[in-house]
Write the structure tokens for this entry.
Amino acid sequence: MKPDALALLLAVAAGERPRDAGERLGIHPKRVAPLCERWAAKGWYDYGVNATLGWLTEAGRAEAERRRTTS
């Protein structure tokens, strides 16, 4: 996982919305949405209408914790 994607994943795991975290981290919105959609395809993330306003699933929180401890 690229450093910006990891930073976004960890921020979302900490309770920040992907859109807000991406803006804070300097990640372009056109990168944030596809990352969220990719995570959703893996079962790590869920969202309603907008991919950048979703939340991590239990599997996503577990993945974020795994990556936090190995980084």
User: Anything to note?
Assistant: Residues 29-42 form the longest helix (14 residues). The two ends are 11 Å apart (CA to CA). The mean pLDDT is 95.
